[in-house]
Design a protein that fits this description.
The chain has helices at residues 2-52, 55-64, 70-99, 113-135, 139-161, 171-193, 203-238, 242-254, 259-273, 281-312, 322-347, 351-376, 378-404, 409-412, 417-426. It is an all-alpha fold and 427 residues long. 48% of the residues are buried. The mean pLDDT is 83.
Length: 427
């Protein structure tokens, strides 16, 4: 448990540095360029999911459960990574040839093709090697390395933002290069510590990978669309990336509520999947209770700190994002519960619940976005977000309570025993 706690701390550090890097990128780029960067992230993430076929979670599940050795996990990871990059290259060249624009940012500048290729390759390698290290229960050192690289990147951006250096930084190019820099560090570490090499996979092993990943793949696509389809709606109805940039920054503030649940979810899946699992369902509920109260405090911190940042740090063009942020927060708060419970369902291979919850979320968002964004702009997108996330969360909570035989109070009412649970996590 102590290893999980340490890994969570380093992951939190990495996510905090990542958020600050994004904040400085937004400040240096301005709303329009940041909108372009945000759309690139969304488009790349969709292609990553479509080409990945849910294999990253399958790698963690098979590795943590000792179902395959390191050589076979590495082989599967390498082949799927190569497949993803080649597919992206084919799609990007085809799109460029047909439209004269790059596939991720829709830029008419051919030189932008190469940063986009580097960015996509970086996130593919990053996902694969993070999965490999998590499968080996090396989350702590993985997150420490990622935090170190991202911290260095943050220092460079701070120097540029406050004119401590005469070197001018291109925010778009800097952002595209960061994932490959992060990936190369953990690639080097993995191969130094793990003498993994190519190994053949038989049909049952391949079938096992894809049987697990298929439903994960479909769920991830639906979940991703539920998270990010509003970006495309905003771009379509506003016909500009400025509003996307304003909304994306507000969304990043709200998503701070998801950092801790996401960290715990990512760390707890290998533990729950392991044959030596020492976690029971009551402890999952206990962690959820603790997170609920922690996130109430984080919500207050987000409102206060974001208000200060909007006034004193970001360009005035971002000011219209504060009210949409307030509208988003209730949905993000309730959905933070879903993130942890979904990790439990994933580890126990009860994937249909996550799939259905994602489908509910997406359906509500599409309908509400279509009607609210033309009338209310990004405020409408924020309201749609909040309603959909809350509805999805209620569905997940009800199913968790039904399966676990627990009561609603077991998720929301803090207990004295939760202090002992936190002590257990640190021990």
């Amino acid at each position: 448990m102590k290893e999980i706690f340490k890994a969570g701390f380093y992951r939190l550090m990495f996510q905090a540095f990542n958020f600050l890097v994004g904040l400085f990128i937004a400040a240096l780029a301005g709303a329009e360029m940041f909108g372009t960067i945000s759309l690139m992230v969304v488009n790349a993430a969709l292609l990553l999911l479509l080409t990945g076929l849910g294999t990253d979670q399958a790698i963690v599940w098979h590795g943590a459960g000792k179902k395959l050795d390191a050589n076979k996990l590495f082989t599967f990871s390498f082949v799927t990574a190569l497949f993803q990059i080649l597919i992206f290259l084919s799609v990007a060249l085809f799109f460029l040839n047909i439209t004269g624009k790059t596939v991720l940012t829709k830029s008419i500048s051919f030189p932008d093709f190469f940063p986009e290729l580097i960015y996509f390759s970086g996130i593919v390698l990053l996902d694969k090697y993070v999965s490999l290290l998590y499968a080996q229960h090396k989350a702590r050192i993985c997150n420490l390395l990622l935090a170190a690289v991202t911290g260095i990147a943050l220092l460079i951006l701070v120097a540029a933002r406050f004119n401590f250096t005469s070197i001018e930084i291109n925010p778009f190019l800097f952002f595209c290069l960061l994932p490959i820099a992060q990936a190369l560090v953990i690639v080097f570490f993995f191969h130094i510590k793990t003498p993994a090499w190519f190994s053949g996979l038989n049909k049952p092993e391949i079938k096992s990978f894809f049987n697990f990943s298929l439903l994960v793949f479909v769920s991830n696509i639906i979940q991703f669309l539920a998270y990010r389809i509003d970006y495309w709606f905003i771009e379509y109805f506003s016909n500009t990336t400025v509003q996307v940039g304003i909304y994306a920054q507000a969304n990043r503030f709200a998503a701070l509520l998801w950092i801790v649940p996401n960290i715990i979810a990512a760390l707890i899946i290998p533990v729950l999947s392991s044959p030596q699992n020492k976690f029971d369902i009551n402890e999952v509920a206990g962690i959820t209770r603790v997170l609920n109260y922690l996130n109430l405090a984080i919500t207050g911190f987000i409102i206060f700190s974001s208000y200060i940042v909007y006034i004193y740090f970001l360009q005035s063009s971002y000011a219209g994002g504060f009210l949409p942020l307030i509208f988003m927060l209730p949905g993000f708060y309730f959905f933070s519960i879903t993130l942890l419970l979904a990790a439990y369902f994933s580890a126990k291979n009860i994937l249909w619940i996550n799939f259905t919850a994602s489908l509910i979320c997406l359906s509500i968002i599409v309908v509400l976005d279509y009607f609210l964004i033309p009338i209310m702009g990004i405020k409408g997108a924020a309201i749609a977000n909040s309603i959909a996330y809350t509805a999805s969360s209620l569905f997940t909570i009800i199913l968790f309570l039904k399966i676990s035989k627990l009561r609603l109070a077991d998720i929301f009412a803090f207990k004295k025993s939760d202090w002992k649970l936190m002590a257990k996590l640190r021990s």
